[in-house]
Design goal:
It contains 9 helices and 11 strands. With 246 residues, the protein is of the alpha/beta class. The protein has a domain of 54 residues. The strands form 3 sheets. It has a 6-stranded mixed β-sheet with strand order 5-6-7-3-8-9, with helices on both faces. A 3-stranded antiparallel β-sheet has the order 2-1-4, covered by helices on one side. Strands 10-11 form a two-stranded antiparallel ribbon. A hairpin with a 2-residue loop joins strand 10 and strand 11. Helix 2 runs parallel beside helix 5 and helix 4 packs across helix 5. Bound molecules: adenosine-5'-triphosphate (ATP). Adenosine-5'-triphosphate binds next to strand 2 and helix 1.
Length: 246
């Protein structure tokens, strides 16, 4: 069965005023897809994300959302504000506001959904703890639960494993993989790491200065394609079923 298309870029150019960041992008994203966006600082990852979200209109060409879409956004855990003594459950309930209405008190159904989302991310026992007292990895999971209770069509994760040790990184990536498998969500993951993207995404967008390439992971994560993009020799090893890009 063909997956339903959600977002299409038709020769779309993204930039700010007269400044072009990403010229002439043509690609589609469908239900159940998994896009990894990778590139160094300043390459345009956030700009592409804004284009996908529809908050930065293209300066030329067209970006189409095929139906109204709900985006669940998971920011980097270290960018969250730790001043307020807010509990984990209250943070997750924020994800219901868009559905329930901003000034409405969350009902028992909202609470039940928030508890379920905390179970989904493996933290049901932490609901009454203060968010600011959690570890970076636990905060990341709570922010994922907050995105999930909004019942999104698209789960957007911004550098979900930055500042994590290798064990927390692989646990987080496995969790995202499980959520992706259990639902028809489109996952969009932004990362600095080609290794993370090469092992988890189905579609890869590589951004690097003047270069942009998007396609299936098997086509993009190839020594020839990467050499063409970066003029640099890459080695790609398969170790126990995983890709290792050197
Ligand atoms: N609002 C803006 N107005 C003008 N230029 C911008 C604006 N936002 C970003 N840029 C420029 O667009 C380019 C791409 O920026 P972008 O934030 O998309 O990169 P990035 O890959 O997300 O970087 P990082 O990994 O550092 O977050 C940069 O050169 C940046 O200076």
């Amino acid at each position: 069965m063909e997956n339903t298309p959600l977002i299409t870029f038709d020769d779309a150019t993204l930039g700010y005023g007269r400044r072009v960041v990403l010229p002439s992008l043509t690609f589609g994203l469908s239900e159940g897809g998994y896009l990894g966006i990778v590139g160094p600082n300043g390459a345009g990852k956030t700009t592409l994300l804004k284009g996908i979200l529809g908050i930065l209109p293209p300066t030329a060409g067209k970006v189409t959302h095929h139906r109204p879409l709900t985006f669940g956004y998971v920011p980097q855990a270290q960018t969250t504000d730790d001043l307020f003594p807010i509990t984990v459950l209250e943070i997750v309930l924020m994800g219901r506001y868009r559905r329930a209405g901003l000034l409405k008190t969350p009902g028992s159904d909202d609470r039940a959904r928030a508890e379920r989302a905390l179970e989904q991310v493996g933290l049901p026992h932490l609901s009454t703890r203060l968010f600011r007292e959690l570890s970076g990895g636990q905060k990341q999971r709570v922010l994922m639960a907050r995105a999930l209770v909004s019942e999104p069509d698209v789960l957007v994760l911004d550098e979900p494993t930055s500042a994590m040790d290798i064990a927390a990184e692989s646990a987080t990536m496995e969790l995202i993989e499980r959520i992706h498998h259990e639902s028809r969500l489109l996952v969009v993951l932004v990362s600095h790491s080609l290794n993370i993207v090469a092992n988890h995404a189905q579609t890869v967008a590589i951004l690097g200065g003047a270069h942009f390439q998007i396609g299936p992971v098997e086509e993009i994560v190839q020594p020839d394609t990467l050499r063409g993009l970066f003029h640099y020799d890459f080695k790609i090893l398969e170790v126990e079923g995983r890709r290792l890009v050197l």
